[in-house]
Automatic annotation (TrEMBL), chain A:
InterPro entries for this protein: RNA_pol_sigma-70-like (IPR039425), RNA_pol_sigma-70_dom (IPR014284), RNA_pol_sigma70_r2 (IPR007627), RNA_pol_sigma70_r4_t2 (IPR013249), RNA_pol_sigma_r2 (IPR013325), RNA_pol_sigma_r3/r4-like (IPR013324), WH-like_DNA-bd_sf (IPR036388)
Family to which the UniProt record says this protein belongs: Belongs to the sigma-70 factor family. ECF subfamily.
Gene3D superfamilies from the UniProt entry: 1.10.1740.10, Winged helix-like DNA-binding domain superfamily/Winged helix DNA-binding domain
One GO process term, biological-process aspect: DNA-templated transcription initiation
Protein name: Sigma-70 family RNA polymerase sigma factor
RNA polymerase sigma-70 region domain sequence ranges: 21-88
Pfam families: Sigma70_r2, Sigma70_r4_2
Organism: Anaerosacchariphilus hominis
TrEMBL record, chain B:
Limits of the Bacterial Ig-like domain: 189-281
Transmembrane regions listed in the UniProt entry: 84-105
Identification of the protein by name: Bacterial Ig-like domain-containing protein
One Pfam entry name: Big_14
Species of origin: Anaerosacchariphilus hominis
Keywords: Membrane, Transmembrane, Transmembrane helix
């Protein structure tokens, strides 16, 4: 690897991808290992992350920026979750059942207010990573369902299903949290 | 459940404010998570990547993730398209032989030639009408006329003992000035194990497409996604890069799908540089299959 990089340096061909790789590979491994608790599988997740990144490098601006760090964190978390899902196929079966969202039951918006800011932080931190990454892709990285689907190798429809499940889960958590704090 | 004051319909502005706040919360939570991650150097001291990992990443860096991409020669390109041309030629020849045989048989049986001409003319007119009708149906399905768009298309239909979802892309082109997608044979035998799709880059710049293609079926004029029986295990880079003037064959195995051989039409869909392209085919009817068997 070092030899290869030095060759690139001398030829001034070190591109953004390699820069990102150099900068964040250990970071990515650490994030993946936290979720997977398996060094080897964490390496697999890192590999999948950079493979996905090759197709979405246009979404990376400044390599050193916090946005890039966050983007990589979301990708590697989602790749680690994919690996976990494959280890538990029964979860994948559940995933394949497309559950259409019922807009009437989605009252998450009612709980999203400044006065509930601390409750929101607390619930998002407690939210399962599989739900949180969908929110991160959508809100933090501002990606469309199609873009998220491409990154996760799933259909935009399934992205939408996961998004509504995440909303539902967060809504349930917020309901309890707000009720516990004596208000809404 | 929500209190009365929360049951009012939220305005778009309120929704935007909520989304902004949710974004802020998610950003804060990500920063919180990031604050617990040690610096890169510290992690590097604690963990050494395996040789296998280093090697595959080295390859990935060298090709920017295109290590699994296949490049083909101009010879393969010509060969791929020649195969399709040959297939079409065989169909035309078979059609010609059958028509010739049919006419010869009728002549031999002493049918009045005028009547034959009239019959042939009537058949031709009928065929033209059927073709026009089919063409109109096709254009309604593929061209996406306003009529079908306004009509209610079910989100899910029952197909081959399963429920299938409406495809997100209904109007998909088979070719443009720069990209062509073709199936090896537009009508497949019922015992065909796979369909071969050729993607050609007729442009002047390299293109990339997803080799993990989607099978769709036409039901009542709308396209639906035929799900795989089982999704492939393990993630693979399925992006293929095609240099200008090159073509690539991809195979879609039918063993992965539950099929209805009597369905109107199938198509294989892929994304070329993010733009969907499709190639259509159908299975031969039972009658066609029997005719061929008898000929053999």
């Amino acid at each position: 690897m070092l030899l290869y990089l030095s060759v690139l340096d001398t030829e001034e061909e070190k591109d953004k991808f390699t820069e990102v790789y150099e900068q964040y590979r250990h970071f990515c491994w650490y994030v993946a290992n936290q979720l997977l608790e398996d060094a080897q599988m964490a390496e697999d997740a890192v590999q999948e992350t950079f493979l996905a990144l090759t197709r979405h490098l246009d979404k990376v601006g400044d390599v050193e920026s916090p946005a890039t760090r966050k983007f990589l964190m979301t990708i590697v978390k989602s790749k680690a979750i994919d690996i976990l899902r494959k280890r538990k196929p029964e979860q994948s079966m559940e995933e394949s059942e497309y559950e259409l969202p019922d807009p009437k039951q989605d009252v998450l918006g009612d709980y999203i207010s400044r006065e509930n800011y601390n409750a929101l932080i607390s619930c998002v931190l407690e939210l399962d990573e599989s739900y949180r990454v969908i929110f991160e892709y959508k809100y933090v990285h501002q990606l469309s369902d199609r873009e998220i689907g491409e990154l996760l190798d799933i259909s935009p429809k399934l992205v939408n299903v996961r998004y509504y499940r995440a909303r539902k889960k967060l809504q349930e958590m917020l309901k309890k949290e707000v009720a516990g704090r004596g208000g809404r | 459940m929500a209190d009365d004051k929360y049951t009012f319909r939220e305005t778009e502005e309120e929704k935007a404010r909520q989304e902004e706040l949710l974004t802020e919360v998610l950003q804060a939570c990500m920063e919180e998570q990031l604050s617990f991650i040690p610096p890169e150097g510290e992690i590097a001291r604690k963990h050494r990547f395996s040789g296998e990992f280093e090697q595959s990443m080295q390859e990935m860096c060298a090709t920017r993730g295109r290590r699994q991409h296949r490049r083909i020669s101009s010879r393969e390109f010509t060969y791929g398209f020649n195969k399709i041309a040959a297939c079409i030629l065989v169909i035309l020849m078979a059609g010609g032989i059958l028509t010739g045989g049919y006419l010869a048989l009728h002549r031999a049986s002493g049918v009045d030639s005028t009547a034959q001409v009239e019959t042939a003319a009537a058949d031709m007119a009928e065929d033209t009408a059927v073709m026009a009708e089919e063409s109109a149906e096709d254009s309604a399905a593929d061209g996406g006329t306003g009529e079908r768009e306004t009509a209610k298309v079910p989100e899910q239909v029952s197909f081959a003992g399963q429920s299938i979802d409406l495809a997100s892309e209904q109007e998909v082109s088979g070719e443009t000035d720069t990209v062509k997608t073709l199936v090896s044979c537009p009508v497949l035998t019922r015992d065909a194990e796979e369909v071969k799709v050729t993607i050609g880059n007729m442009g002047e710049a390299a293109i990339s497409y997803n080799a993990n293609m989607e099978l769709q079926v036409q039901v009542d004029g709308a396209w639906y996604v035929v799900p795989r029986r089982q999704e492939p295990v393990g993630q693979q880079d399925t992006t293929v890069v095609l240099e200008p003037g090159m073509a690539q064959d991809e195979e879609l195995s039918f063993a992965d799908y539950a099929l209805d051989y009597d369905a109107e039409q199938y198509r294989v869909l892929t994304y070329v540089d993010g733009v969907p392209y499709s190639a259509q085919f159908r299975f031969e009817s039972v009658e066609q299959g029997l005719e061929e068997a008898l000929e053999e």
